[in-house]
Protein: CHAD domain-containing protein
Amino acid sequence: MNVTRRDTLNLPKRKSRKVKLVADATFLPLLQQYLQNEISYARQHEKGIIRDDDTEFLHQYRVALRRVRALLKLLKPFCPNKEQQAITEQLKQFMQRTNALRDLDVYLMKMDDYFDYLDHPHHQGLARFFDDIQDVRKASFKDLKRWLKSEDYQAQWDELLPMLNQPWQQKAEKNKEKPLCLPIAKQVLNKSQTQVCQRILSIDNKSEDAVIHQLRIDCKKLRYSLEYFAPLLHQATVKTHLKHLKVLQDKLGDFNDSAVQQSFLNTYRNNKKPNSHRYRAVSELITLTEQQHLASKADILGQISQVNAYLSTKGERLFR
Structure:
């Protein structure tokens, strides 16, 4: 019997900018070009998502769209209002359609860790739990695949993409505005950095999860701003900024993951009989994730003062 093996797709490579930001260049045409490139990069992952070759295809698709959406929200005062609102809302809908599958992929990637964490008597219940996750994942993937291949999905892009090709600069000039790269970079980065520092100062060991989650969002905004405006900045300084942010963001990501896991596990357990193998195994996982959540919060509290001290003293040295 001949068995043919299907070749897997390679992940697309992100291309560098064709035209870099220049301090006194007109801002909007360069922004539009960057956003178009990011969307093109995101869409190159669609075939890999549909083939289900690697969960990284969906992850990178989401990262690229999130970057576009975050930049449009950060730069809202400088963009035409109608297009900015329409594009960000459409991208939000795209993200929401992919949330469920990405969450399930994350759980399945943690499967080996969960088996290592739990004692052997709970492995039977844990195996059944992951069987259930696999079944839900199959249904979620089937639904997402159908949507990505649909005429409706393509029609949404056909409506969105022309908005990025419109002459945004002409609309700005009608309002007697001619935004340039450097003044906008200073304004946006100063605002983003101030938000992170102020958020850090508001956090202590009594802070609600929602406050810490907002810090995670603020850090993402600052990171996206730094990455976008990097050509205008001192390279060594921006690299150090991003390094400090990455350490904190990793800890904030762990904190958010454990919060999402607790919610998911509690919902799952509520539908199981208390004497079942699944119930007992998931109860052990809930206890474990609660401990991880508290430990993650302690790590964040230990890290934020260092990040705040760095940003407060080094922020003004960003620009050339």
Observations:
- The mean pLDDT is 92.
- The chain has two domains: 21-107+137-170, 180-315.
- The radius of gyration is 22 Å.
